[in-house]
Design brief:
The chain crosses the membrane at residues 510-532, 538-558. Keywords: Membrane, Transmembrane, Transmembrane helix. The protein has 576 residues and is an alpha+beta fold. The chain has helices spanning 98-116, 132-136, 140-144, 147-150, 163-166, 273-288, 304-317, 329-332, 341-355, 383-404, 417-438, 446-451, 456-475, 477-488, 508-529, 535-558; strands spanning 6-10, 18-23, 29-33, 48-55, 58-73, 76-88, 120-122, 179-190, 193-203, 227-235, 238-246, 253-254, 266-267, 290-295, 322-326, 358-360, 366-368, 372-377. Strands 4, 5, 6, 7, 8, 9, 10, 11, 14, 15, 16, 17 and 18 form a 13-stranded mixed sheet that branches. β5 and β6 (76-88) form a beta hairpin. α9 (341-355) packs across α10 (383-404). The longest helix has 24 residues, at 535-558.
Length: 576
């Protein structure tokens, strides 16, 4: 309910009388009851508060205006937030200068860009941020906490937006933790036995960002593009879970876009890699147990130094809880020999059996715990990583369904055509969701995930997605990175700042060189089209303009980093 002075957020649960009041002038947040809502207020339905943010014009309230039911999770409804609204506390913008108005408009565009990204999920009654195994090992006090208090902060994407509400425990029921990633739920049947199969990918909000601007780890050991993926089976009251993780190679390295198709990855030569590396794995071991690293990068070319450095760091750390496996995905599977992935699966089969999976019976008795995770990575932790994770998850699912009695002894999951189709498509959808959120396009190699084989059409689609990635990574990812940094609180707007961070002056060559190249190339084409009898003269003109256009192109390529769309709000690490 909106009035010129206040926002009134009414709880619509059965029997609820609480109303959250947000003062649009003082920004004070208080609790009241329904009778205090003025009849003159403009009323509209919302499905939750995402949080508040301070921009140049003042504070804004972000609310969920549309939602889609994903399914039910042990009688808890899971929703996908599909639309949002950003409401200004201020009734007018007359207090802003023209520059401030423009900056505020840009910041709003950044917020709306993040909100337009697919993959925000929430539940009003269930904690989506924790795995089944973590939830089973909690105290009664933990169970009494609000969803916001008990949530795993790595996966609460609106944690920064909820900071004001989280400071007041009495209003926590109005503050919904929102997950970013992917969730799918399917009711399946094998041998006439019905079970629920669920796949959840939780993206970390620490060191979050886009493909080429966020690589490696930060000083606290948080890895870029870190995703926890959990596969769950629910059958006759029993619940089984298998968890895997992915994350950037945990060293200090970068791969800044510079107009080249594949920028050269650079490892920081002066940083203390062991410090961040150890912090990363110390936290991973505390949370997940044993770590089985599956490094899928190329073992030659530009990716080779990263593979060697990763192997060296594991060896130097000498932690018995960490095992390192290098598998050159592209070399092993070249010429579309994707059947050779079985080499890796056979290599880790015994280890996977030792790690096991989580299983709890209908009475709540834990029958099995997962003792560790596979931590997979390639360069982006997207395409190659997702293929391997889907194969490891299927192997675990095979064991779970046999133990639960869904599969008969000797029966193979691959032989269950109807379920296989659901399984493969879900993992391919998971790949696309993670890839769009990090790289800006759908995943590569999803034809194998969906069909079990590599196809010519899949290669063509991979080429198309690679071209789109190239464009976005070079010409729009700076804005995308700024948007994420603003949303997550890595950058805070200060309206008193004398110099706008958004007004970055461009060098003259940024405008001049592309124009010269286009003009020279156009003149070259015109000379060819208007060729007369004097071919010698025409050839001279073509050569002149051709050399001018090609020369300008190489000058632009040489100065590529000056032509890409770079982040402006938070200075990203520069590694020379």
């Amino acid at each position: 309910h909106i009035t010129p002075e206040k926002f009134y957020v009414e709880a619509c649960d059965d029997g609820a009388d609480d109303v959250l009041i947000i003062d649009r002038v003082s920004t004070e947040v208080t609790l009241s009851v329904k009778k205090d809502i003025p009849p003159s207020a403009v009323t509209r339905p919302i499905f939750g508060i995402l949080g508040t943010i301070h921009l140049v014009a003042g504070n804004y309230l972000i609310v969920i205006t549309k939602k889609k039911k994903i399914g039910e999770f042990f009688n808890h409804v899971i929703w996908k937030a599909t639309d949002f609204d950003v409401l200004s506390y201020k009734k007018t913008m007359l207090h802003l200068t023209d520059i401030q108005l423009q900056d505020n408009k840009t910041f709003l565009a950044m917020m709306n860009h993040v909100l337009s990204m697919d993959g925000f999920y929430f539940s009003t009654t269930y904690d989506l941020t924790h795995t089944l195994q973590r939830l089973s090992n909690t105290s009664p006090e933990f169970q009494e906490m609000s969803l916001l208090e008990r949530a795993d902060q790595r996966f609460v994407w609106n944690g920064h937006l909820l900071r004001e509400l989280s400071a007041q425990p009495e209003v926590h029921r109005f503050a919904l933790p929102v997950l970013h990633g992917f969730i799918t739920m399917h009711s399946c049947s094998i041998n006439g036995k019905y079970f629920d199969w669920i796949l959840i990918s939780r993206r970390s909000c620490f060191r979050a960002g886009v493909r080429y601007y966020v690589r490696g780890i930060d000083s606290e050991g948080h890895a870029a593009n870190f995703v926890e993926t959990e596969q769950i089976v629910h059958y006759s009251g029993s619940r089984a879970s298998f968890v895997q993780t992915r994350g950037s190679i945990p060293l200090y390295w970068s791969q800044r876009p510079n107009l080249k198709y594949k920028p050269l990855p650079l490892i920081n030569k002066v940083a203390n890699h062991m410090d961040g590396f150890q912090r990363h794995f110390d936290s991973q071991i505390i949370i997940y147990g044993k770590q089985v690293i599956i490094n899928l990068v190329n073992q030659k070319g530009s990716e080779k130094p990263l593979e060697q450095a990763f192997a060296t760091m594991v060896s130097s750390l000498g932690n018995g809880m960490i095992r390192y496996i290098a598998f050159d995905f592209h070399k092993e599977c070249k010429n579309m020999r994707w059947d050779r992935l079985s080499i890796l699966l056979d290599q880790v089969a015994e280890t996977q059996d030792e790690l096991s999976y989580f299983l709890v019976d209908p009475a709540g008795l834990v029958l099995s715990n997962q003792e560790g995770v596979f931590r997979s990575n390639c360069m982006d932790c997207l395409d190659r990583t997702n293929v391997i994770q889907s194969l490891l998850a299927r192997r675990s699912l095979q064991a779970q369904l046999q133990r639960l009695g869904v599969l008969h002894v000797g029966q193979k999951l691959e032989e269950q055509d109807e379920f296989e189709k659901i399984y493969k498509n879900a993992w391919a959808d998971n790949a696309n969701a993670c890839a769009k959120q990090y790289a800006g396009t759908g995943a590569l190699k999803t034809d194998f995930t969906r069909t079990g084989k590599r196809t010519q059409l899949g290669l063509i689609m991979d080429g198309w997605n690679s071209l789109i990635r190239y464009y976005k990574n070079n010409f729009s990812d700076g804005f995308r990175q700024d948007s994420i940094d603003l949303f997550l609180g890595n950058y805070s707007v200060d309206e008193l700042e004398s110099h706008s961070p958004l007004s970055v002056p461009r060098d003259l060559k940024f405008l001049a060189l592309p124009i010269i190249m286009v003009v020279a190339f156009s003149m070259c084409i015109i000379c060819l089209l208007m060729a007369g009898d004097t071919w010698t003269e025409t050839l001279a003109y073509v050569l002149f303009w051709g050399v001018a256009s090609i020369g300008t192109f190489f000058i632009i390529l040489y100065n590529g980093k000056d032509f890409v769309d770079a982040p402006r709000l938070v200075q990203k690490e520069k590694i020379d």
